[in-house]
Amino acid sequence: MSFSADVKEELAKHIGTSRHCQLAEIAAIVGSTGHIEFDDGRPVMLYLQPDNGIVIRKFFTLLKKAFNIGTSFLEESPDIKVNGRVYRPVLMEGELLESCLKAIRLIDGDGNFKPAEAGSGPMITRNSCCKRAFLRDSFLCIGSISDPNKGYHLEFVCDNENQAVRLQEIIESFDIEARIVRRKKYYVLYVKEGSGIVDLLNIMEAPVSLMNLENLRIVKEMRNSINRRVNCEVANITKTVNAATKQIEDITYIRDFYGFNRLQENLREMAEVRLEHPDATLLELGKFLDPPVGKSGVNHRLRKLSELADKLR
User: Fold this and answer.
1) Which of 23, 110, 138, 144 is deepest in the core (most CB within 10 A)?
2) Architecture of domain 3-205 in CATH?
3) Per-residue pLDDT averaged across 109-137, rounded?
4) How far apart are CA 142 and CA 165, in angstroms?
């Protein structure tokens, strides 16, 4: 099972203990996967997309907890197809449907109705706990997260811009940066920073997935840190070897075409020590001199030898 599926499996088991949080979860499910059929301005049927089993099971559990009513798919009523999607009826016209829509703010105080796509309004998520619940079930319906071993990317695929902006406002109220991009006919709200995804998992109350992601992040960071150190060491060694090779070439050229006997004493000694110890570092070369010379002194003498070789060439 994928990491995204593991996260959803964990979120599906988490149900808010307060009724206002349960209503926020119902609102998220209806707004993300629901369709309401109206007749003469009144709702007559609530439909849900039947292809996501864990969402459907959670929806029925939430209805039982929030309204103390057990329900299931209405087998006697046919499925419908809207915008290429199949919807199955779950609630018919009656007090239950109307009270449910009022509770999730799809019916206002004046009795006006609005489609599920328009959203349930900010009142349903006025509390921080309700925002968490709303995000949790929105992710359950339209969210996904990439494999952390490959990269960090969490997204919500929204049908309309209003839905994406609403989710963005809720996420950013927790100081997490989220961006919206148009992808064909959808609006995709995404979070790319690993730390932001960790914070969002914490907000949605998925502690197991959070710890799994953190462990992967730690391993990944350690691996990257080791790779950086190794690359740095290799670069330093390469630089040292190349410098030593150039120094030896210059000194050999001076010896063959100029002669060490024409050099100043300190440069002659430096040239001889470098030829005797081709693999030594500058610090080690300084200790072979009499008297010993520091790293900067060795570097200065070798540079003088290099300049002489360039002039001779």
Assistant:
1) 138
2) Roll (3.10)
3) 78
4) 14
